[in-house]
Amino acid sequence: MGRKRPSLRNYLTEGDDARDLDILDVPPPVELPSEDMTETLLESCPSESLSSSEWAVAVRCVLLKFEEREPTVDLLTGLFRSDDRKSVLSSVEALIDRNVFSLEDGVLTVTDPSLWLACDSGESNEIPEEDDRIDVDPMNMLKEEDRSLWAPMLRSLEPLPLVLSEMKKRFDEADPVVTQFFVLRKVEERLVPVTRASQIRPPIKAMLIWSEGEGADFYLDF
Q1: pTM to 2 decimals?
Q2: Dist CA 167 CA 181 (whole Å)
Q3: Contacts for 104 with CB less than 8 Å, ≥ 6 apart
Q4: Residue 184 burial by CB count (10 A; 0-12/13-18/19+): exposed, middle or buried?
Q5: How many C-beta neighbours within 10 Å does residue 32 have?
Q6: What is the pLDDT of residues 50-106, one digit of tens each?
Q7: HSE (side-chain half, CA atoms, 13 Å) at 56
Q8: Handedness of CA 140, 144, 148, 149 (dihedral sign)
Q9: What's the CA gap between 101 and 60, in Å, rounded?
Q10: How many angstroms separate the Cα of 141 from the Cα of each of 129, 137, 164, 201, 220?
Q11: Per its UniProt entry, which superkingdom is the organism in (predicted)?
């Protein structure tokens, strides 16, 4: 004879017990960060100085270090949902610009908060004035093919300090018909044309901006 189905009344009053299911008296423990770990994360990435998305990215970078994994940009962005990766990449770029992240040999590191907190308050890392010139010959940085093309303009130029946030702003405001942007990723590599603002991101050793009727400017990361 078939098993009798539980009545609706029993189900409503007894819930899953009416189905003869084994109900856990004690739910499994939830693994929470230890108090020491929480303090470490807050000391490494003070939340009051970052947006929620930036804080999430910075903390994930720190956790990768704890796991003894090198947090590259691709690895870090790949740990978030695919529809969030564009936003994550923007946060990474902003954190690099603000000196929260340092990028060396493709590996991201969260810097000491005293450095980037000072940057936010204007105590350090001030944007250099346009008159601050650098005694470097741009011709020595370019690949031979680019030297011959740009020599007439670059020989008379003195490099200006490179500030990526300023370059992005200038790119967004420029007329693409008359102004062209180029990035130099490494010394003696080819200049790469910039077609969108997201290309203006580390590593960049130098940038060349040429504008019809105004000539060229050369910016150097020193």
Answers
A1: 0.44
A2: 9
A3: none
A4: buried
A5: 8
A6: 788 888 888 888 888 888 888 888 888 888 877 777 788 888 888 888 788 888 888
A7: 14
A8: negative
A9: 12
A10: 23, 8, 19, 19, 10
A11: Bacteria
Enter the tokens of residue 201. 């991101």
- How far apart are alpha carbons 132 and 128 in whole angstroms? 6
Measured CA to CA, the distance from residue 15 to residue 187 in angstroms comes to 71
Placement of tokens 């400017």 in the chain: 217
Spell out the residues 6+ positions from residue 157 whose beta carbon is closer than 8 angstroms to its own.
138, 216, 217, 218
Please, are residues 54 and 108 in contact by the beta-carbon 8 Å criterion?
no
